[in-house]
Design goal:
The complex is a heterodimer of chains A (182) and B (477). Chain A is α+β, with helices and mostly antiparallel strands. Chain A is built from five helices and nine strands; from the N terminus they run H-E-E-E-E-H-H-E-E-E-E-E-H-H. In chain A, strands 1, 2, 3, 4, 5, 6, 7, 8 and 9 form a nine-stranded antiparallel sheet that branches. In chain B, 8% of the residues lie in helices and 41% in strands. In chain B, the strands form nine sheets. Chain B has a five-stranded antiparallel sheet. Classes of the chains: A alpha+beta (182), B mainly beta (477). At the A-B interface, helix 1 and helix 2 of A face helix 1 and strand 30 of B.
């Protein structure tokens, strides 16, 4: 039979471990769900139906909407990353925003912090002829991070503003947590 | 109260029990109703598809490989003394207790899925309508950029016959040995997906003839809108069955597409929505959480429970195997599904099967846990009786599928790790945390009843046989 002292010490250790786990879970939950406001951006509810990937985060600000989420293990080629436009069409969830998306032009190389990939601008035909969106896919090894910026992305200054926001702490902290702090 | 305290206090002990499940070098294999017959290390190359071919009086295993690892991009071939990019291993398994490594054919330079030569199929020239009767042809992928056909009549001295290049990806092709029709999983440069089907007539392997490109409507060049899930691989029942079962998706958004082979081969080839839709006779869309890596048809299966029924005593079944992608269970469980496709226009999922995680604490062992692929041989020794499922760190699992509505596990084998077994890592707190575990990736069988499993984490080829009641299910003595 265990002594009373052993039981008390073991219980304290167990309580400490459970508390540590609960705190860690809370911090993770808090990073995910905290109502962010940052430099004119406000977090909104993820608007898309559930699919095979974890829910992303969505923000609204400066006349734009930004949707971003990691897709772990989804890169077509872990060495090259995203290098062609068809992959941007396929992986960025642009079809969630508008199934009738049409590319406006060829895409271009893009870098968000140290993640490199490709971006492309689309016309959102379901929303009217003037509605545009920029889809972005960058990768780290085999993991993708995809983002969509909806609004007047023909305006280069607005596009830059959205990219700066994607590189800002609120987005990066969350992405890093999702990617295992890569 | 005291019980609660004891339970809480025992939690760390339970955690350490789970840690004790991790494989260590020197531990024996774990097995039930399966036993090891022979082993070859395959030069410590990460392995994908094994194909076993009866060649004269010999049995030869052709094994495709992924590219090398970060640590060893090009392992040294001890037979040549040279560092060679992973390609195809050719092993004489006539005596399964003493497999003899014959030859390594290098593949495309590149690590992991970016290199190697993962896929391999073999047909005798004598069975192909226009083949050289003395030849044995091996169809393989060359990394992401080409398909190749080699004459392996002398398996120790293969000769390149044909190369179909200029692709952006390749994968799990199928080749009908009696007609020569091949469904090559390719990446045609202008298609909107990495992987689609190029149908070829390879009845004369020296002079390949392209028949058409094929995929789901929306994947073709010039299409707009959402891009449907990309192909993983097809399996054809040939002219007699007149069906091709295409599996799309690996671990997400799976689709089983049932295609009329005749219409596919003879229909208009231009890749328009209408022409791509025309050969399809049925489709089963799976959950966004599961893919369709292998779609293995088992047609006209008598189901004992339905024997007295006025209709439906025999069922057309497709076994669908998903592929686990993430290490340490960081995704939805990938497993085995059975679809009743007797009414082709209304296919229906009827059962599923997975290894119970708690039976080995597999989520904590390291590497991937979940299904990857099944054997694809339709030889009567196992066909419609026993299916073998590669389950990564849970090894190979033998399922009694005689009643596909209620599949039952009859045995398993989890090989021991070796000093060559590669680690598998996950990121935690910005650091890699790595564990070493077996990663049984693919499996094939031969008509003698041997089971060949290969390891993605460089542990080689294990040749197994059934034991105990599992042998009885297959009718083996």
């Amino acid at each position: 039979m265990l002594s009373r002292r052993t039981i008390v010490y073991a219980s304290l250790a167990a309580v400490f471990m459970i508390g540590l786990g609960a705190f860690s879970t809370y911090v993770r939950w808090d990073v995910t769900h905290r109502p962010w406001e940052y430099d004119g951006w406000r977090r909104i509810t993820w608007p898309f139906p559930r699919d095979g990937w974890d829910e992303g985060q969505a923000w609204r600000g400066h006349g734009l909407e930004v949707y971003v989420r990691p897709k772990l293990g989804f890169c077509g080629n872990c060495d090259t990353g995203v290098v062609d436009d068809s992959e941007v069409d396929r992986v960025t969830d642009i079809d969630l925003v508008d199934p009738l998306f049409t590319p406006v032009a060829s895409g271009q190389r893009i870098q968000i912090t140290d993640l490199v990939g490709r971006s492309r601008i689309y016309k959102l035909r379901s929303r009217g002829s003037s509605q545009l969106a920029e889809a972005i896919a960058v990768s780290y090894r085999c993991d993708l991070v995809v983002a969509i910026v909806v609004g007047n992305v023909a305006d280069e200054e607005l596009r830059r503003k959205a990219r700066r926001f994607l590189e800002a702490d609120p987005v990066q902290d969350w992405i890093n947590a999702q990617l295992g702090e890569k | 109260m005291m019980r609660l305290v004891l339970f809480i206090a025992s939690l760390p002990l339970l955690a350490s029990a789970a840690l004790a499940q991790q494989q260590k070098i020197g531990d024996p294999p774990e097995a039930s109703n399966m036993r090891l017959v022979g082993w070859n290390d395959l030069q410590a190359r990460s392995a994908y598809q094994p194909t076993i071919h009866h060649q004269g009086d010999r049995w030869i295993a052709y094994i495709g490989h992924h590219g090398g690892t970060d640590a060893v991009p090009d392992p040294v071939n001890p037979m040549t003394g040279k560092a060679e990019p992973n390609g195809t291993s050719i092993v004489d398994v006539t005596d399964p207790a003493n497999p003899k490594y014959l030859r390594h054919i290098p593949g495309q330079e590149g690590k992991y899925e970016a290199g190697g030569a993962q896929m391999v199929r073999v047909c005798d020239g004598a069975s192909l309508p226009k083949g050289d009767k003395n030849a044995v042809y091996m169809l393989r992928t060359f990394g992401s950029e080409a398909h190749e056909i080699w004459n392996v009549a002398d398996p120790a001295n293969p000769k390149l016959v044909t190369r179909l290049a200029g692709l952006k990806d390749t994968h799990k092709s199928w080749w009908e040995c009696d007609t020569g029709i091949a469904y090559l999983v390719s990446g045609a440069p202008d298609w909107r997906v990495r992987r689609m089907t190029q149908v070829y007539d390879l009845s004369d392997p020296v002079h390949p003839k392209k028949i058409r490109d094929f995929g789901l409507p929306g994947q073709q060049p010039g299409a707009t809108g959402a891009v449907p899930t990309e192909l993983h691989g097809p399996i054809s029942t040939g002219p007699r069955g007149n069906r091709v079962y295409f599996g799309y998706g690996t671990n997400k958004g799976g689709i089983l597409q049932i295609v009329d082979r005749e219409k596919l081969l003879k229909g208009p080839a231009a890749p328009t929505d209408e022409n791509l839709r025309s050969p399809e006779v049925g489709r089963l869309s799976m959950s966004a959480w599961n893919g369709a890596h292998t779609t293995f048809p088992m047609l006209q299966m008598p189901v004992a429970e339905f024997a007295a029924d006025g209709e439906g005593a025999k069922r057309d079944i497709v076994m669908i195997v998903d592929e686990a992608i993430q290490n340490e269970c960081r995704e939805a469980r990938q497993m085995v599904w059975f679809a009743d496709v007797s009414i082709e226009a209304r296919p229906m999922m009827i059962s599923s099967w997975t290894v119970p995680e708690a039976s080995g604490h597999f989520c904590q062992r390291g590497g991937r846990f979940g299904a990857h692929s099944s054997n694809e041989s339709m030889d009567p020794v196992f066909y419609k009786k026993m299916a073998f499922i590669a389950f990564f760190n849970a090894g190979i699992r033998a399922l009694d599928v005689r009643d596909p509505y209620h599949p039952v596990e009859m045995g398993y084998f989890i090989p021991a790790i070796t000093e060559k077994t590669d680690k598998r890592c996950v990121r935690e707190g910005g650091q890699d945390r790595c564990k070493t575990a077996i990663q049984t990736n693919n499996v094939e069988t031969d008509s003698r009843g041997y089971i060949y499993i290969v390891d993605r984490a460089n542990t080689g080829l294990h040749i197994l046989e059934l034991a105990g009641p599992a042998r009885a299910v297959a009718g083996l003595k």
